[in-house]
Write a structure and sequence with these properties.
The chain is an all-alpha fold and 441 residues long. The chain is 81% helix and 0% strand. The longest helix is centred in the last third of the chain and has 53 residues. Bound molecules: beta-D-glucopyranose.
Length: 441
């Protein structure tokens, strides 16, 4: 039973892998697409952020279509879009075609960023839900690493190198599409569509014969309101506070600065005089730390809970960024110290807010409103991601490293206090138990 659920989660997490790959692959292509399409800096900025615009559209599509057609079918659509985007961007001869292909990829990233973790959460037994949803974060990290590695390996393949880099994504897209044929639909969605017998068959396999009937009854009860949900239902007095928590937490996951490091590490290193020749080593160090500490989170998240992990992680992130800020202020920025603080920061993020944000946002909302609630929270995440990505180089230039990292350190501290005071613990309970508990807070 456990093996079956793990297998299903791995299939869904391929969506996370494509999300990680697609957001990271562009960095290695920039130096080649800029001269090929003769882009000005402004055009380059738009070309890179076209993916993020697609993401925002994708998240809304997932919020609606995920309820209407099921989690599985819409994930299949995402796989198809990833495939078309890979082929389209790799073969584009005009900027318009290239951007269109990247927007399609962005839509796929947006869809996968909600539906993969949500689908896992809806199939996972409560006891392992945190670990299994975190598997999706692990896949995101692996996807980012694969993109960096494959870019590195393909860089010397001639003038079409950037095309090969982008084409790589077609392979995991096909794998995701094909393997989705072998997994069941979410039992929570099936009940929402009154397909209770099918839901029972799935629960027999995921929850076991003893608890399947009980779980089915609980899901049925939670979905007893029959009319279709709308976005305005999220403003009902019992749900609105949960929506706020989801949105605020999602924004914090981004404004605590993770992608300043993920996207700009070479720039930060260059800033302190470390040569970019060691870019690969840095990437391995950053990606490797991210990977190892995501595994640590997977081991801890169901045992100790989401909240302690985020609180301790935020404290660690605050200290690491304060350290980074201090050495920038003191002007004693030797490469080694910068690396130590950056890796420490990544480790604390990976062991806490990285996976925990995705886990908590799948758990906050009632069955009826999960996909819509999550889509609002994750749209906020993508908008925050875009703003931080655009603002960071400007901050670094205008405010200096010292002030920039001090600001991010203070934001991490604010996140710590917010989570401590306002975020409920969600470990161990079924989604239906949580639904009752959270509504009555
Ligand atoms: C975040 C991404 C980030 C990634 C890095 C994810 O949880 O949402 O923005 O790039 O973690 O590991």
């Amino acid at each position: 039973m456990k093996g079956y659920v793990v297998l299903i989660s791995i299939v869904a997490a391929l969506g996370g892998l494509l999300f990680g790959f697609d957001t990271a692959v562009i960095s290695g292509t920039i130096n080649f697409i800029q001269p090929y399409f003769k882009l000005t800096e402004v055009q380059l900025g738009w070309t890179v952020s076209s993916l993020l615009l697609g993401c925002i559209a994708g998240v809304f599509i997932a919020g609606k279509a995920g309820d209407q057609y099921g989690r599985k079918k819409v994930l299949m659509l995402a796989a198809l879009l990833f495939f078309i985007s890979a082929i389209g961007s790799a073969s584009a001869h005009t900027l318009t075609l290239f951007i269109m292909a990247r927007v399609l990829g962005g839509i796929a990233v947006g869809v996968a960023s909600i539906l993969s973790p949500m689908y896992i959460a809806e199939l996972a037994p409560a006891k392992y839900r945190g670990t299994l949803v975190s598997l999706n974060q692990l896949a995101i990290v692996v996807g980012i690493l694969i993109a960096f590695f494959s870019n590195y390996l393909l860089v010397n393949t001639g003038e079409n190198n950037w095309r090969w880099m982008l084409l790589v994504m077609a392979a995991p897209a096909v794998l995701l599409f094909a393997s989705l044929f072998f997994v069941p639909e979410s039992p929570r969605w099936l009940v929402a569509r009154q397909l209770n017998d099918e839901a029972y068959q799935v629960l027999l396999k995921t929850a076991g014969t003893k608890t399947a009937a009980i779980e089915l009854r609980e899901i049925e009860k939670s979905l007893s309101v029959q009319e279709a949900s709308t976005y305005s239902d999220l403003l009902a007095p019992r749900v609105k506070p949960l929506l706020y928590i989801g949105v605020i937490l999602a924004v914090f996951q981004q404004i605590t600065g993770i992608n300043t490091i993920m996207y700009y590490a070479p720039k930060i290193f260059a800033n302190v005089g470390v040569s970019t020749d060691s870019a690969l080593l840095q990437t391995i160090a950053i990606g490797g730390t991210n990977l190892v500490f995501t595994l640590v989170a997977m081991l801890l998240i169901d045992r100790f809970g989401r909240k302690p992990l985020i609180v301790i992680g935020s404290l660690g992130m605050t200290l690491m960024l304060a350290g980074l800020s201090a050495i920038f202020f003191m002007g004693e920025t030797t490469g080694v110290l910068v690396l130590v603080f950056i890796l420490g920061y990544i480790a604390f993020f990976a062991a806490s807010l990285g996976p925990a944000l995705w886990v908590v946002t799948t758990e906050l909302f009632p069955n009826r409103l999960r996909s819509k609630g999550m889509s609002i929270a994750i749209v906020a995440l993508w908008i925050a991601c875009t703003i931080v990505t655009i603002a960071f180089p400007i901050m670094l230039e205008q405010l200096s490293g010292g002030f920039t990292f001090l600001i991010f350190a203070l934001i991490c501290l604010a996140n710590l206090i917010y989570v401590w005071k306002y975020v409920p613990e969600t470990k161990g309970k079924t989604l239906e138990e949580l639904e009752k508990d959270l509504a009555n807070r």
